[in-house]
Amino acid sequence: xxxxxxxxxxxxxxxxxxxxxxxxxxxxxxxxxxxxxxxxxxxxxxxxxxxxxxxxxxxxxxxxxxxxxxxxxxxxxxxxxxxxxxxxxxxxxxxxxxxxxxxxxxxxxxxxxxxxxxxxxxxxxxxxxxxxxxxxxxxxxxxxxxxxxxxxxxxxxxxxxxxxxxxxxxxxxxxxxxxxxxxxxxxxxxxxxxxxxxxxxxxxxxxxxxxxxxxxxxxxxxxxxxxxxxxxxxxxxxxxxxxxxxxxxxxxxxxxxxxxxxxxxxxxxxxxxxxxxxxxxxxxxxxxxxxxxxxxxxxxxxxxxxxxxxxxxxxxxxxxxxxxxxxx
Length: 328
Prior knowledge:
With about 325 residues, this protein is α/β, with parallel strands linked by helices. Helix content is about 30%, strand content about 20%.
């Protein structure tokens, strides 16, 4: 499949008084038209920063320093701020993880969605408000006409997240990035939100990137999963391969830590010892080596690159000297 988005060797640094610290180190990822990609990993591994860098939304003192991010034939990292404003919302939509900090507390829901439409589409306010009401209905908000005049604090957490989805879809994007879209929601509302995005994706054939730390959550949503650790991709494979034939020791550790339904007596969940390296303090070689139970000398001397896993799906790639040639 032709890639709608191709990220190649992306690096992102934090500018600090004592010098730059690398938080994303050579990430290479692709998303095909109509594909769902899950990006998983621990907090701080660079999931959100990678996606925010695409549309110029990185926080102060954090910047993309090298690499390319080609979207629909154009390198986003080479675009001007004005050009990126034309891409945000209209071609690449975002669903942020915390609607209470993303929505304007003093503007009504209708005005916030309409404002984005006026900017992105250049339509009149009346037309934008009418479209905003349609979007609220589309994402399953009851009595959308009445909700148009509500403020964010007057809505439940699930309804606020539906508003965020409506805003993310307002411009009719080719790519939707959902950053932890169900954080702090109860499991029933989580299921409703995920089903909604999945249904909307199937209707429009847009591509979706799901950012999460929850492998179990992403199992039924993604076509492919990229596992990140310490700012690098350590495994990239179709979702079935990740769950049936996990290859990188870190991926195996994540899956082993998930609870399972079983008639066997309960036992302690597995855990991964140690902690990820701090930005700017990555060890030489494989960043996971200090926590890895199968590391060899090569792991602490050289950085493994993504390599096709022997005997597996050709799209299954892993960055590991020990397990790249073995599927267990």
